[in-house]
Every structure is written in C-alpha cells, then in structure tokens.
Amino acid sequence: MGDVGDMGDVGVAASRADAPTPTPPLPPSPTPEEADRMRAEVVAGLQRPQKELSPKWFYDQRGSELFEEITRLPEYYPTRSERALLTAFAPEWIAELRPASLVELGAGAADKTRILLDGIQAASPGATYVPVDISAEFLESAAEGLREDYPELEIQPLVADMAERIRLPESLPRPAVFALLGSTIGNFRPGAAVALLARTRAAMRDGDRFLLGADLDKDVDVLEAAYNDAAGITAAFNLNVLHVLNRELDADFDVAAFRHRAFYDRAKQRIEMHLVARRPVTATIPGAGTFAFAEGETVRTEISCKYDRAMIEGMFAGAGLLLEGWVDGPDHVHRFALAVGRLS
Ligand SMILES: C[S@@+](CC[C@H](N)C(=O)[O-])C[C@H]1O[C@@H](n2cnc3c(N)ncnc32)[C@H](O)[C@@H]1O
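Predict the joint structure of the above. Result:
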C-alpha cells in the first residue's frame, strides 16, 4: 500500500489479468491502539466547554444500518435529491470520462454509487472500485454484494478514517474518479473540509476528477424536518453513539438519560445534532475518568454544513481544485448539488 500522495501506477492491471487481487482481511475493530486513540479523542471532546463527539463514532454496524434507514425516510430529502442528480448526470459523464477506477470516501452501503458503477462497468470492464469507510463490518458486507452484482469490476474495500491520511492501493488505474457523496463533507468544519479535499487532491493526477455531493442551504423547516423524523430513526442513530462508547470503551453511559435534539443554525449555515441530558447524570470511561452532565446540558454529536455554489468553489480553490462542473436540483425546495473538480 502506498500513501495518498505517493501512488505508483503500474502493476495492478497486469496482475489482474491473471488472477483477481485478493482482498486483505479486515482488521478486528477496534485494535487496542485504535481503542486508545478513540478514548483519547472522546475524552478531548468531552472536556471542551461545549462537549462534543465526532460523528464518525455513530457508524458501527447498527449505526450504519440506521443511517440506511434514514436515507429512506420521507423527511430525509438529501439521498433522493442526490440520486436524482446522479441519475440525470452520471451516465453521460462516466461514458465520456471512462474512469479506470473509482475511490469513494465514506461509501457506506454504496447504494447510489451503483449509478456510477453501472456506467463504469459498461465503459471500462476491469476497472477498480475502492470504497473507503470507517464502518468495517458494514463495508465488507456491502463489498460482498457489489462483487456479486459487478463481476467485471475489481472491488477493493478499504477501512480507513478519512479525517486522516489514507493509504490507497499503490497502483490505482487512471483516470480515477474520487467521490465524496451524501454531503458527508458537511460533517467537517470548513478548515477540516478543505484539508480533506486537499489530501484527496494530493492523490489526484491530471485527467482524474473529484465528484462531490453537497447539500445546499434552504428553508429551515425542510432542513430541520430532515433531522427530526417522525419515526425517531435519527434519534436512535444519534443515541447509538453512546452504545458505541459503552461497547468499545467499556463506558457506562445511561442511554435513556439522554434525548435527541437537532436544529438549524442559520448564522453558521449548519444543522447541529446534540444529545441532551434529561437529568443530572455521570458516565465513566475506564482509564479516562468520570464525566458529569448537568440537566439540559448537551453533547454536540454532528454538524451538517449547508452550502451554496460560491462556498463550494471557494473550498475547491483552497484545496487546489478547479470547479469544472456543477448541477443542482432536482427542485427548489430540496436543492442538492453535484460538483466536479479537477486539478487547477
Ligand atoms: C452520511 S453517510 C453517507 C453514506 C453514503 N456515502 C451515502 O451517500 O449515502 C457517511 C458515511 O461515511 C462514513 N464515515 C463517517 N466518518 C468517516 C470517517 N472519518 N472516515 C471514513 N468513513 C467515515 C460512515 O460510516 C458512512 O458510511
């Protein structure tokens, strides 16, 4: 494996002709080192004046399944909007570009990605798909399904944290498309989002493209409904982070002592998701200490930034990417955008 900034371009195509590249076994989740890092990150977040947890901890197997349920909720327009844009835009784009590989950050179930994969399998049989995700078990089962449905493609799942440097396969066939869909970019603060784009840009070569799916600013009622569904699935997803901490860190959060809250901060142009303590409560994380939550005190568990075209163009520019293409829609109420970048 090579570093994102240092990827060779020989070897895979030749070796693939003889035998499929075996997928390395996924590491157990988490290793002791990962648990140490997770504990340190969690503690740092809980020690801030506004207690905070990274949204990446939502995604164990259950969290990934809950997110999939969210994507099917009537209130959760982003998945439907992005799917409509991909359906309208991607087939022609892929047929022209004929990518030899697709690297997708935060791939999840890779359901919408199938629109891209259909085109890639038709235009470039033998192409490589590298779904990258932090949710190891879920990623592997998604990859198994994709291998069955796309026998002409080389599926190489990669468990990694996109907030850090990712080690991609050394000989990634080119041209490559790097994709970040589902408005996952919105979970990063502007500086971290630009840093993520810049790390991705460092892995790109001339002829490669970056495809970003980003949710756009809109009516507050539409936004808030999407994160406060009537069925309570988003609430269960939000609370799941406490189950993850209890299991992975042997913590003792009383999940029933917290409730879900999500609201749009118009000034910061972002949804914030919080867990609110219903009563004074403490939680102990072995090896890290005991944390107290006053009644009504909140832990911020996710931000989801909402954009406009100028913001995306500015983030691309900050990362050394040129905005080459832009589509938004499918209607004014549920506007979402696909942005295509190339090296500037
Ligand atoms: C909002 S969901 C989007 C899933 C899918 N791309 C879609 O559009 O429906 C975010 C995805 O990114 C993954 N994820 C979240 N934080 C991550 C991180 N730091 N590194 C890698 N994957 C991450 C989650 O497991 C999840 O699959």
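Residues 86 and 115 are 7 Å apart (CA to CA).
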